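Here is this case:
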Amino acid sequence: MEQVVKIIKEFNDLGYTCNEEQASKLLEYMLYLQEYNAKVNLTAITDDQGIIVKHFIDSLGAVNDIPEGAKLADIGSGAGFPAVVLKIFRPDLGVTLIESNGKKTTFLVSLIKRLNLDGIEVLNLRAEECGRKQGLREGYDAVTARAVTELNKLIEYALPLLKKGGALYAYKGRVDEELQKASNAIVKLNGALKEARHYELMEQKRSLVIITKEGKTPSEYPRQNKKIISNPL
């Protein structure tokens, strides 16, 4: 119970709310992550406060922006940030975790069972494969990605997954230069920059970039991964 109270206090101190049920799930999440991380490298942040603030609280950047009942795809889910945390706080969301690394996929599947979460699935696929797959392409209201890749590449992975009117929520560090480089990709993929929101957590500069999808994705996108990496839009 003491650790649950500690988590709630960390949230409250930074202006976030967290109830006892949510904090209990986050505690279970943290302990399992720390245990599993000894076998599989999931995160370099392993201390309690670092996980609570830099992972859990940071994951809530878009918690009030994503529409009610949205279908959400999370690209490069890794250890589950931000989408598993968002699911804990927003059980109305239907969540698909997209992770190409088999060991991380195994962790995510076991984590979901451990936390007893419904309405969340894991796909062991690359994002660009999902973006070309019938039933997944243009099938989501929201896409999240945290510390995945540069914005000009991320846009090509993400926007093909979105329905028209949906939005990408990209969790980044400070992004002024990345936004300039991404302007062409935003135009080519029929997107529009809605907001770049800046904040700090434990003296780390963070940004939440929200890009909306204004029109249908051209059929040639997403390209093969090698082309996305070597020749970003």
About this structure: The domain at 64-230 is CATH 3.40.50.150 (Rossmann fold). The mean pLDDT is 95.
